[in-house]
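Please describe our next protein:
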Amino acid sequence: MPTRVQTAIEMRQIAEPYIRRRAIRHLERGRVVIFGAGTGNPFFTTDTAAALRAAEVGADALLKATKVDGVYDADPAADPGAVLLPHVTYADVAARGLTFMDATAATLAAENGIDAVVFNMRAPGAVAAALLGDPSVGTRITCVMPAGGAGASRPLPRAPTISGVRGPLDGPGPAVGC
């Protein structure tokens, strides 16, 4: 699949500079765009950069590849009884104090109606499955709970963004907050 890498920090030998219009054009042409190197500004995490880029290009979803299987009801490193949550809403995240990304990034994604999927990047086939919208991979964070409750799943709309990785799409979608 044709791929382009864009970064906010200039490093022309390995990536083109991040230019929103150019990123959208690549997406319109069916290319995968990988956004790297954060925003190039201090005090902003890579999570915030991923949410920002997802909002800028009109992404419907943001995929966060991590070292855990998804979002848990407690820290799985500290609590062996922590339970993996297959689906939560942004309101649940705030009310229960769940952490899957920093608060600025989560708020930015929620305010722009961008679903998130948190999954284990080390699990064989997980990245491809998440990119294809496999509902059995990771935890989905959305604005509303799907019909059928937390166990229910729904396919991801269009192509998602994975901490800055975006698949093909048919044009930027509208920004609608939770």
User: Anything to note?
Assistant: The helical segments are 20-28, 46-56, 90-96, 103-111, 126-131. The longest strand covers residues 61-66. DSSP finds five helices and eleven strands in the chain. The chain has a mean pLDDT of 84.
